[in-house]
Amino acid sequence: MPHIDYYLATISPNCYLAGTRPTEIAAKHGATISYKPLDIMALFARTGGVPPGQRHPSRQEYRLIEIGRCAKELGMPVNVKPAHFPTNPAPSSYALIAAQKAGGGDLGALVAGITRACWAEEKDVADDAVIKGCLEAAGFDPSLADSGLLAGAMVYEQNLEDAVSAGVFGVPFFITDDGARFWGQDRLTQLDRHLGGEL
């Protein structure tokens, strides 16, 4: 059975734009997914990237154009300047880690729900009530937001180390068990074709 490591950030617009497509692609090919939320700002610092707010104005401007254009192409609502960005991604990441360990719900829907809350619903994904709402909507016990915080913090930190070691420098980033790497929501078609043996 093929496997995908999905490195993501719960505040990433491109993880929002990926939506549930990673889950759908995995299901199509009988693949499993390990969701690996990480601190994207720390990843940038470790791999030569620059946080959005520190980029040249022309890059910042084009980033917003591209987010809006991709959202329109995908038929997804978006606010390119959400009210709560950037915000602390750790609490929602810890909840995702706890949900993955607990099982019983839809992890793809949880990732989509958290990122949608930030990029389309003007919600703060560092807020406990928002996180619990996303957990519940994806079929998980909302109390997971309050449990395993220490373990979540350790996994969150390890995900960053794993990402750097694996050559990850942005999100979403997908690595298959045969070592193929795909960066960006606009590379999901390539991931699909790779899993199908076409690429």
Order of helices and strands: EHHEHHHHHHEEH
Strand elements, count: 4
Number of distinct helices: 9
Radius of gyration, CA atoms, in whole angstroms: 16 Å
Strand content: 5-15%
Percent of residues in helical segments?
40-55%
What gross morphology would you assign? globular
Helix/strand structural class: alpha+beta
CATH class equals Alpha Beta
| Gap between N and C termini | 18 Å
Please, could you describe this protein's structure?
There is one protein chain. By secondary structure, the chain is α+β, with helices and mostly antiparallel strands. It has one domain (3-195): Glutaredoxin (3-Layer(aba) Sandwich), CATH 3.40.30. Helices cover 51% and strands 10% of the residues. The chain has helices at 13-18, 21-28, 40-47, 57-74, 90-102, 107-119, 128-137, 149-166, 188-195; strands at residues 3-8, 32-37, 173-176, 181-183. A four-stranded mixed beta sheet has the order 2-1-3-4, with helices on both faces. Helix 2 (21-28) runs parallel beside helix 9 and helix 6 packs across helix 7 (128-137). The longest helix is centred in the first third of the chain and has 18 residues, at 57-74. The radius of gyration is 16 Å and the shape is globular. The chain starts with a strand and ends with a helix. The model has no long low-confidence stretch (mean pLDDT 97).
